[in-house]
Amino acid sequence: MRRIVGSLQPIGRALMLPIAVLPIAGLLLRLGQPDLLGIPLLAAAGDALFSSLGLLFAIGVATGIARDGNGAAALAGVVCYLVTMHGGRALLQVPLDVTAGLADALADTVAQAWKAKAFARLDVPVGIVSGLIGGTLYNRYATISVPAFLSFFGGRRFVPIVAGAAGVGLALLVGGSYALLDAGLDIASRGLVASGHLGLFGFGILNRLLLVTGLHHILNNVAWFVLGDFNGTTGDLRRFFAGDPHAGAFMAGFFPVMMFGLPAACLAMYRAALPDQKKAVGGMLLSLALTSFLTGVTEPIEFSFMFLAPLLYAIHAVLTGISMVVMDLLGVRLGFGFSAGLFDYLLNFGRATRPWLLLPVGIAYFLIYYGIFAFAIRRFNLATPGRQPVETQPETVTQTDARGAAYLAALGGSANLQTIGACTTRLRLIVQDQGLVNDAALKALGAVAILRPSAQSVQVIIGPIADQVSEEIRLAAAQGAAPRTSAPIPATSPPSSSVEARADIIAALGGVDAIADTRLVAGRLRIVLNRAVNVGSLWTIADVHGVAHIDDRTLHIIGQGLTR
Q1: Which of 74, 423, 431, 437 is catalytic?
Q2: What per-residue string of b and e applies to 476-488 under the rule 16 or more CB within 10 Å gives b?
Q3: pLDDT tens digits for 429-472?
Q4: In the CATH scheme, what architecture does the domain 503-559 have?
Q5: H or E element: which one contains 369?
Q6: CB half-sphere exposure, 269, CA atoms < 13 A
Q7: pTM for this one?
Q8: Can you give the residue ranges of the PTS EIIC type-1 domain (predicted)?
Q9: What 3-state class would DSSP assign to 526?
């Protein structure tokens, strides 16, 4: 399972780059409408971006998949996309009734228009696949050597060429099987509509549960860009901006949660904070609440309690699913270009259906979230922000050059990083040695959580500045800052007294007799062994996110709830 998740995560990350275009597309399209500024130029510009989403996905996904984001990968994605789209159209058979009774010249024009409209239903899926092909081919062939007389076409220049050949194959596949693909989309769309509230409920729950892996982006792309059809425009999000009065069901339910529910959770965490820590966490929680309310960016809030209180997060996921159903029952249709925040709500108010009903539902969600979080935090003594032991931490670094170097050092230095990437709120990294990643130092720099989806994958949740910080880390690495170190544990976080590991961890290491000492060190479980053991079975334990060998007899286990 870890390998499957690990292989899908780069796709989820790559999808975020083209999605970043949606805010400006939605802004231009809405501002150009008659009920706002009424400027046709702006409306046409926004519509152009929405109409070209397939091409934008080809460019963005290829760039995100490429190991260094080189433009040759983006060009390869474009080549593959254009060859597939235009080549595939040529294979379509136009129904006889489409051109019946028309003159030859007009019939040819109508036939071409029919093909273009029919194939446009697949533009985003074809764009994503083309981007994956372009980025993968770049990683494979960017350094290829060719005979001397063909040297001009070697290296990166070879990538768009082979991408064109791949596009021909993809065009044959898609064009030849268009009838099956089109029927499949119709069945999926009708099935989704037929599933009604159950489908919306499931979508809301899965959207939140998949957040921890980053795979919710893949689920969102299916619902927002592929399913449904309104005059040739597919996807709930695109249909909403195209004027489909029935679109928006897969977006409306997020508004009560992101604008009201999660800010209420922040208020509950602040009021439950210890008196001597309220001042310290108040500013952070206010910032997180405003970010969620205004922009709909919620990950920093969710990761602040996701691992501390999994049951609370499960309730949050269920409430998201319920919100989707409630808004649909009330006939509310809301849309967004970026996320379910106040900015998108106000911008698209005139295009929405019954948008004012968000206010009573939102107030109800505010009270529900506040009540649940306030009760759970105190009843179960959850270590939410402001209720954790105070540790002396180094001063947070904010200067651009110093921040990148500080993150680089906390991640074990440039030699420890194989790839550096980011999505909306998290750094996505592949490292050589998990043991060199200093969780305490990362949290001192402002990280909300550190995830380890696989043996070499690390995700650092830091909020909307993730992309900026990733560039600073790349720059610091290029300048040779922070050489690889052993990432020593800060003197301010001394080892704790001995603790007892969970029974399943003890069993995986060969029993009590195999363990000489167990301590918590800077958030890690340090185990000293009496003899060498096979630690492979530790990876089968759900709460274990990483295992690092310090030496033959010492292990650092990273995860949540590892002690009794």
Answers
A1: 423
A2: bbeeebbebeebe
A3: 888 888 888 888 888 888 877 888 777 888 888 877 888 888 88
A4: 2-Layer Sandwich (3.30)
A5: helix 358-379
A6: 29
A7: 0.64
A8: 2-389
A9: strand
